Amino acid sequence: MDIEALRSFLAFIDTGSFTRAAKQTFRTQSAISMQMKKLEQELEKNLFQKAGRQLVLTHEGQQLASYARRLLSLHDEAVSSLREQAESQPLLFGCPDDYAETLLPYFVSLMRQQLGPIQIQILCASSTRLRQLMDKGELHAAMLTRQPGSDEGHLLMHDQGIWYGLPETDLLSRRPLPIALFQADCKFHAAALDGLIKQEISFDLVSCSSSATAQRGMVRAGLAVGAMARSSMSPDFVELHVDWLPPLPGIEIALVLAPQSHPHLTTQVARTVSQHFLAALPKTNVAKEQGLVVMKTAIKCE
């Protein structure tokens, strides 16, 4: 039986008329009458009879009233329970690995200020992969790298690709130049290789990984120099500035909601979080806060 028809049926019982029942359920009187006719057709019983000028319930109508109250009570209880479960479900959030140590903790802090003590399950993967997972409904939202000037999501910050390495590294004088990069879907990967090839600088691609931890590990071990976003660089490294190292592109980092986002993570919440993140950048600038050093050297390309 139609739950809404049963709700209208009980509204008639409680108010004593179709006119008042229509007002209570925000329907027209003709719509209420149609619902009652469909109930009678489905049950093959008359639910109403005239008593003088009044319309009252038949015996079958009285029986249905008892069942209807129980059915509606169970229905409303089930809906309420399931909605509460949906609202209390963990927030499934994606983030590229290179932002996980530097940007993500502060971002999660802002999210919890807006959403309260919500559990956040974090998956680290490339921006390309995270977009695919959001489209499949496997993530509610993600922090992504986007093209500068794009209107995708809510802008969190502008960033710049940089070359980095250990302080006083001698790797810049080696040929082939040992480098560690992200996978090919990273903008810095193509820019680094294309630039080195264009300038005829021989290189040795020591590692190619989707993990920032792996790349930093190669650089920290003195095996290579790396390329990543300035905000992702750890404080034990220095930014490398030499004339012959190819420039790396600028990027934007944005908060993007999935088509089916978390019930609590609305567009307004996302906008507020991104605005707070942007506003706090001058105070919490990652590079400045970590005391990152810029290394300028006159080493020439052989």
UniProtKB/TrEMBL annotation:
<keyword id="KW-0804">Transcription</keyword>
<protein>
    <submittedName>
        <fullName>LysR family transcriptional regulator</fullName>
    </submittedName>
</protein>
<dbReference type="InterPro" id="IPR005119">
    <property type="entry name" value="LysR_subst-bd"/>
</dbReference>
<dbReference type="InterPro" id="IPR050176">
    <property type="entry name" value="LTTR"/>
</dbReference>
<dbReference type="Pfam" id="PF00126">
    <property type="entry name" value="HTH_1"/>
</dbReference>
<dbReference type="InterPro" id="IPR036390">
    <property type="entry name" value="WH_DNA-bd_sf"/>
</dbReference>
<keyword id="KW-0238">DNA-binding</keyword>
<dbReference type="Pfam" id="PF03466">
    <property type="entry name" value="LysR_substrate"/>
</dbReference>
<dbReference type="GO" id="GO:0003677">
    <property type="term" value="F:DNA binding"/>
</dbReference>
<comment type="similarity">
    <text>Belongs to the LysR transcriptional regulatory family.</text>
</comment>
<dbReference type="InterPro" id="IPR036388">
    <property type="entry name" value="WH-like_DNA-bd_sf"/>
</dbReference>
<keyword id="KW-0805">Transcription regulation</keyword>
<dbReference type="InterPro" id="IPR000847">
    <property type="entry name" value="LysR_HTH_N"/>
</dbReference>
<feature type="domain" description="HTH lysR-type">
    <location>
        <begin position="1"/>
        <end position="58"/>
    </location>
</feature>
<dbReference type="GO" id="GO:0003700">
    <property type="term" value="F:DNA-binding transcription factor activity"/>
</dbReference>
